[in-house]
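Researcher: We plan to redesign the surface later, but first we want a full-length starting point. Tokens attached.
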């Protein structure tokens, strides 16, 4: 009765990697228990998601065709658009969040348009808008821009409104730090940058106050939910955001955090169930309303 923080299945969003092709269920080596699925086998994981009653899924599409403009990100029959339509038809009860970013779709692996070795902020915005609108048209419930270009929340809000999706919420990756914790994800989503790094658009992990300014700017631009990412090394930022802002907060418990827990657990060095429960509870205690986590299905089982 006196316990201050309690986890609930609806707190969680489960990320899913969708690949083009058939009969695919590839294990992601650095993320034990996580697979890339082709659409024809997506039901294997969606049935579990439905059964678990979690808050939603977050989709990451992996196209075969990549080009400098990331055109498969906003193609009508792009892999993510097809996955959204499939889920919308077969699983009307599953809430679909789509990650809005170009890095899985660009041949250079950066999150935006590139000129030479420079990432172009303003030139990227229309492409992000096209991606968000095309996924909304496919039936997605929420757009989650993760690219970290300045001004993208306002641009996406305006684009969605103009296309008639005035009700569609935006969950912005507002305080997304340039982090080594994304390593395993880039294998899973085939999205490692071909040159350089993401430091010109993601945040310096030394800067907590700047993170709060980024969050404030995104709220100003119309974000309905703001996110801190990664989670565990940034709970101070999350807590301060919770004290400073009155919009719901999300936290992304990222691939590297998951991989560390799984590796130690596989060695018998830690008790996975207890560690995961402790980690997720800490995220909620620090102020997260929504937790995006690869542990979601296990966590729900352990909640009982
Ligand atoms: C795409 C994106 C990334 C993650 C979520 N969306 C990778 C990146 O920015 O390099 C990371 C998720 C994770 O590590 O689990 N921009
Ligand atoms: Zn990206």
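Model: Full-length starting sequence:
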């Amino acid at each position: 009765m006196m316990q201050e923080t309690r986890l609930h299945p609806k707190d969680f969003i489960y990320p899913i990697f969708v690949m083009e092709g058939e009969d695919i269920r590839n294990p992601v080596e650095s993320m034990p228990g996580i697979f890339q699925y082709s659409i024809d086998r997506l039901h294997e994981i969606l049935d579990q998601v439905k059964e678990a009653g979690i808050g939603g899924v977050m989709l990451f599409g992996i196209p075969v065709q990549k080009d400098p403009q990331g055109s498969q990100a906003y193609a009508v029959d792009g892999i993510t658009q097809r996955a959204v339509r499939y889920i919308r038809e077969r699983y009307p009860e599953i809430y679909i969040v789509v990650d809005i970013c170009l890095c899985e779709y660009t041949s250079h692996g950066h999150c935006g348009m590139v000129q030479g070795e420079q990432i172009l902020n303003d030139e990227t915005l229309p492409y992000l808008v096209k991606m968000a609108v095309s996924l909304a048209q496919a039936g997605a419930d929420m757009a989650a821009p993760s690219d970290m270009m300045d001004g993208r929340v306002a641009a996406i809000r305006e684009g969605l409104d103009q296309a008639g999706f005035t009700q569609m919420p935006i969950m912005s990756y507002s305080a997304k730090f340039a982090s080594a914790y994304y390593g395993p994800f880039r294998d899973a989503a085939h999205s490692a940058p071909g040159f350089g790094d993401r430091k010109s658009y993601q945040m310096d992990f030394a800067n907590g106050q700047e993170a709060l300014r980024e969050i404030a700017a995104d709220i100003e631009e119309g974000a309905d939910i703001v996110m801190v990412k990664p989670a565990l090394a940034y709970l101070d930022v999350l807590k301060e955001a919770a004290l400073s802002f009155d919009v719901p907060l999300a936290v992304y418990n990222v691939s590297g955090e998951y991989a560390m827990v799984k590796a130690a657990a596989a060695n018998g060095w830690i008790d996975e169930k207890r560690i995961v429960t402790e980690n997720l509870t800490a995220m909620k205690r620090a102020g997260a309303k929504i937790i995006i986590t690869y542990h979601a299905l296990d966590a729900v089982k352990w909640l009982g």
